[in-house]
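Q: Hi! First time doing this. I have a protein sequence and I read that you can turn it into a structure. Is that right? Here it is:
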Amino acid sequence: MFLAEVRGFEPPRMLLTSLPALQAGPFNHLVPKDNSNFSKQIKEVIDKKEVEGDFFATPFTNLEFKPHFSQKVDKEYKGDALLIKDPSQVEKLTETRNIKSSSPYQITFKVVKQQKEGYGEEKGRPLTYEESFSRHGDYRHILEIEPLDLGIEGLPPIIRLVFYFADEINPLAAGNYELTKCELYKSPALENSVGKTFTMGVKEFRVSSKNNTLSFSTNFEYEFGSLTEKKSQDSPENPTKTPPKNDNSGNPPPKPNPTSPETLKNSGIFKVVLIVSIIMVGLIFLVLVFSHYKKRRG
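A: Yes, that's right. Below is the predicted 3D structure, encoded as structure tokens:
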């Protein structure tokens, strides 16, 4: 497993440190030996333990995933590593401008399956969801998603998001809160997520390369209140509009169908008018003939 902290960079960047204490953490950085400032400071920290390290960031695209790299150094330790491909793309950060004032990075994903599972163990076996929730109010919610590529070379896409809803036994650091304090706890939002697309703010990427999982347990990873459904353009709330017909095509109007009811109706009216007109003309002719004959006799 490795840990990568992201603080609102676009494209996403990983937060690095040259502090020796963090170099032995759950992730390892592989830094090429060159004349870059970052490489020089790493070497200085290794040589002189009392040197205070700085914070750096580099794009995800500047990283290459190296699985089980630690086995080449220590066969008893199984760990993954991230190779910094180009140290010149590593940027030194300032505490006030680039770390504290930054905003979470947004990911977009589509859920294909969801389920709840128990949290913790009892007598050597995992607790079921019902046992864990009824006794402690704890559980974990798993979302299987369409593959999500983080842009790190060699790292398989994320296919699973895991939300851990459990209170820690020991108090957390100031400003750090468990997911039991957020809006997703006991909410139907995750249960009704299958088939929907969401966006979500991620402060810290906690990735397990073993099962391609991105995990969240506190507000240091998940930005509380940031899970938002992304509506489809073709949803009922946004019906697709039918474009108007183009009457300027230049084609002649279609000929009427002689067997259609409308055509037959119009034809019958025409016949009636024609017959009435003939009768009127005949009557007028007879009146004229009668008048002429009457004058001659008079």
